[in-house]
Design goal:
Elements: E1 2-3, H1 9-18, H2 23-33, H3 51-59, E2 62-63, E3 68-74, E4 80-85, E5 91-98, E6 103-106, E7 110-112, E8 127-130, H4 133-147, E9 153-156, H5 166-178, E10 187-191, H6 197-209, E11 215-219, H7 225-231, H8 240-254, E12 258-264, H9 272-282, E13 288-293, H10 307-319, E14 323-327, H11 340-347
Helix pairs in contact: 1-2, 4-5, 5-6, 9-10
Bound molecules: iron/sulfur cluster.
Iron/sulfur cluster is lined by residues 113, 115-117, 120, 122-123, 159-161, 192, 338.
């Protein structure tokens, strides 16, 4: 099976030429694939192409999409979570988060995840495999299809650890940028951090994309190594101070700012002492901290920090010169946390 999704205009011109067609036929395929108004993409629907060309493409195993719809969950605030099935019958999630001006797609980079974060439903299932670039891009098509809007922003914050699937994530970013016409500056790659991989991310980005303009978001979630290892067991391989040093190097290499995600967990990391530790850790580093409300999941003992603690934590950081914002969890009604829809479907 050859998926044309993720192909550049040049690739598709070459496909047309290989079939004895004029190059403009390739451009017609290109314009059709990346137009969000074209729904349920398959080759039969590209009616501008000659019938026999479409037939030959299909007979030779070409496709435009390889995921299929399994289930959806629409929250009261309009956030749409989709459960999609891969060709090898695995399930992955993606989320469309709308505001008036934006539609942000939260994408998965792997089936499952090996990082075993204790607050995450996906981490409980372990890793099945990494996703191909075309499977990452297909999630955007499904979100646009279901929400009838063009995706404007991308966050790699769904299932999986993007730094363990760097090349396919970067290949998908190439297409998101050049084919879906979403600026790299509107793309965020979120990671719990894997030793040596922050450097590799910028190196491979320059190799594959020619630059590195997306935002790197580190899921820090702790102010010291002990708490971090408690909530993210894989963190034992990567000291928190080394993560900060590698992020500073990333900023020097790319000129981009790094943001730190901090999930506020009641009684774990939401006290004054933790705010003070975080201030010391980030002192002098031009970065941004995102405080996040926790979506509770069944079978996990962590509780959401109170709004009072969250506001206090935020003001403490602000008063010490650290840029900080508070991100309210979206889609709080049902199955909102990462991996929850998939977990519930498997338990049915
Ligand atoms: S939070 Fe992200 S990195 Fe951690 S287990 Fe879940 S999907 Fe993996």
């Amino acid at each position: 099976m050859k998926n044309l999704l993720g192909s550049s205009i040049k690739d598709l011109e070459n496909v047309a030429l290989d079939y004895g067609q004029a190059a403009f036929r390739g451009r017609q395929i290109y314009n059709w694939i990346y137009n969000y108004r074209n729904k349920n993409k398959n080759i039969d629907q590209i009616e501008v192409l000659p019938l026999d060309f479409r037939k030959r493409l299909k007979d030779d195993g070409f496709k435009l999409s390889e995921l299929s719809f399994q289930e959806k969950n629409l929250a009261n605030d309009g956030t749409l979570k989709l459960l999609l099935t891969t060709e090898d019958n695995e399930s992955i999630e993606c989320v469309g988060i709308p505001t008036e001006k934006r539609l942000t797609a939260c994408l998965s980079s792997q089936v499952g995840c090996p990082m075993d974060c204790k607050f995450c439903a996906t981490g409980k299932e372990g890793l099945k495999r990494s996703l191909k670039a075309s499977e990452i891009l297909d999630q955007i098509l499904f979100i646009e299809n279901e929400m009838n809007r063009k995706v404007t922003n991308i966050v790699f914050m769904g299932m999986g650890e993007p730094l363990l699937n760097i090349d396919d994530v970067l290949l998908s970013i190439r297409s998101i940028n050049e084919d879906f016409h979403i600026s790299q500056r509107k793309i965020t790659v979120s990671t719990v951090a894997v030793p040596k991989m922050i450097k590799k991310l910028s190196t491979n980005s320059f190799r594959i994309l020619g630059n590195c303009q997306f935002t790197l978001a580190i899921s820090l979630h702790a102010s010291n190594q002990i708490i971090r290892e408690m909530i993210i067991p894989s963190a034992k391989h990567y000291q928190i101070e080394n993560i900060i040093e590698d992020c500073k190097q990333f900023v020097r290499d790319t000129g981009r700012r790094v943001s730190f995600e901090y999930l506020m967990l009641s009684g774990i990391n939401d006290k004054l002492e933790h705010a003070n530790e975080l201030i010391n850790l980030l002192k002098g580093f031009q970065c941004h901290v995102n405080l996040i409300q926790y979506n509770q999941i069944d079978g996990v003992e962590f509780k959401r920090a109170s709004l009072k603690n969250l506001k206090f934590f935020q003001s403490k950081l602000l008063n010490n010169g650290i840029a900080v914002s508070f991100r309210k969890s979206r889609g709080l009604d049902k199955n909102a946390a990462c991996g929850q829809l998939r977990q519930n479907a498997r338990n049915k």
